[in-house]
Specification:
- By secondary structure, the chain is an all-alpha fold.
- Helix 1 runs parallel beside helix 7, helix 2 crosses helix 6 and helix 3 packs antiparallel against helix 4.
- The termini are far apart.
- The longest helix has 44 residues.
- The chain has a single domain, classed as Four Helix Bundle (Hemerythrin (Met), subunit A) (Up-down Bundle).
- The protein contains seven helices and no strands.
Amino acid sequence: MNTAEGFAEGHRIDAAGARMGMWIFLFTEVLFFGGLFLIYTVYRVRYGAAFLQGGRLMDTAHGIANTVILLTGSLTIALSLALLRKGKRGLSLLAQGLTVLLGVFFLAGKYVEYSAHIGHGLYPASPVLLGMDKGKILFMGLYYVMTGVHALHVLIGVAVISWTILLTARQKITPRDTIKLENTGLYWHFVDVIWIYLLPLFYLIT
């Protein structure tokens, strides 16, 4: 085996290890969110009517708009990888930049949504919320925890994609070495999937 072949083989092994590490990380994330979904399900069964009433406090159109934003972000991050593999670095950078922009739009939307709820006195330990029945209090508490943790993951995703933009621009991520962008894309897709589950739990609850 010559030097070039040895380097290529070592790169494949490193990439496989990085890919496996990302899947293990995502598995732990699934366990974490799975626990939250389980808690939600238990309380939904116990306080079904109150959860339905709590769902009416949500802005369905806002939730759907955020879904469209995140799914479009999944498309752009996938395109960025495909474009880079074809050697189109400039277009890949553009697609990564669009993904970051969409992530910022999502976070801005959540800020507006949280502000509206807070403006109506619907925030943890508020007099308005404490005056409601236990089921609604639990619904709003889970809403803030689950969507808040998800928003934190979106913020992390925006930061990581900003990092891959820098690495791509400096040609540290290349058509022959895309593992960092691959793993970032996997993370972003995972964040999108979590939101798809959150949407019906809080915005489309019936």
